[in-house]
Specification:
Layout lengths: L1 H20 L8 H6 L2 H12 L7 H19 L11 E7 L7 H11 L3 E5 L7 H5 L6 E6 L5 E6 L11 E4 L4 E8 L2 E9 L8 H5 L2 H5 L6 E6 L7 H10 L2 E2 L7 E3 L2 E3 L2 E5 L3 E5 L10 E5 L5
Parallel strand pairs: 1-2, 7-8
Antiparallel strand pairs: 1-14, 2-4, 3-4, 5-6, 6-7, 8-12, 9-12, 10-11, 13-14
Helix pairs in contact: 1-3, 3-4
């Protein structure tokens, strides 16, 4: 019995330390890697604290404060965003071996967004751009290697002069078109971040401020961030972009059966996002109604 109690206490200690570290992504990217699993770790910690002996209740309440706060920091992002929006954007990581290009094209055309942001646009699935050409004649594909890239498509008019309105950063995986909106010119951007630490995501984020400085002005951003909205990485992107994430958080990827919200859309005044089908990809799409200004 004592051995079981010792193991449970050891697991609780590890869980509480991991939860604390999950808030320290600004210190080291391992914090963001732990933040991905924050809700599960918090649930484990609370399960280990329950049932509690009456005499130990004060200590239990003290120890339970961290996992409760951690769970709240995740569930907060489930709150919906504002309903109205001036523009619409369809975000999709296509998956480089997408098996349903025709279905994806049909879904985008049915949703009829103003802007489409795509990741993992590969030589195998690039046909989608041709299928959408008539509806979205303004297209910009930025390759980050010989076989794959990110793309922005739009039915909006391009800002003038057109030659200054295209951006491509292969280092970060960031593509942009400068478009005319009811609120004036905005940059429409597509981003693909790599896996978090020990992946190369921190290297990309170290360059994000310098890259976005090359596309000044209001920005609309859709992408596969490979990171959850309660992380330091997402706060860093929001700050660099000068935009707010469309809510609520939408589980868009399954990691060994664990649903994770790692695809996001940002706009100057946020917006509301809903899920679209998988359609041959390992990511669900997002459809967002975006606000260009408050009020």
């Amino acid at each position: 019995m004592r051995a079981v109690q010792w193991v449970m206490r050891a697991l609780l200690a590890v869980a509480l330390v991991a939860l604390g570290l999950s808030f320290l992504g600004m210190v080291h990217p391992v914090g963001d890697s732990l933040a991905v699993f924050r809700l599960g770790i918090a649930a484990l910690a609370l399960a280990l604290l329950w049932p509690a002996r009456p005499g130990r209740l004060p200590a239990i309440l003290l120890l339970g404060a961290l996992p409760l706060m951690a769970a709240g920091s995740v569930l907060w992002h489930k709150l919906p965003g504002p309903e109205s929006g001036a523009l619409t954007l369809y975000q999709k990581n296509m998956f480089h071996r997408n098996s349903d290009i025709a279905g994806l094209a049909a879904d985008i055309l049915q949703a009829a967004p103003d802007i489409v942001t795509l990741q993992e646009v590969s030589v195998e699935n690039e046909l989608l751009l041709d299928l959408l050409w008539q509806a979205y004649p303004a297209q910009h594909l930025c390759r980050y290697n010989r076989r794959s890239g990110v793309a922005v498509l739009t039915k909006l008019p391009l800002a003038q002069p057109e030659g200054t309105g295209r951006f491509c950063s292969a280092d970060i995986g960031l593509a942009g078109l400068r478009v005319e909106t009811p609120a004036g010119p905005h940059w429409a951007l597509s981003l693909h971040l790599a896996w978090p630490w020990p992946g190369r995501q921190p290297l990309q984020l170290a360059k994000i401020d310098a890259a976005l400085a090359q596309v000044p002005g209001p920005r609309l951003l859709g992408g596969d961030f490979n990171m959850v909205p309660w992380s330091h990485a997402l706060r860093q992107v929001a700050r660099a972009t000068g935009a707010t994430r469309a809510a609520p958080s939408v589980p868009s990827f399954s990691l060994r059966g664990v649903p994770l919200p790692i695809d996001h859309v940002f706009a100057p005044a946020g917006g509301q996002a809903v899920a679209r089908p998988w359609l041959g990809s390992d990511h669900r799409g997002l459809f967002a109604r975006l606000r260009l200004s408050e009020g």
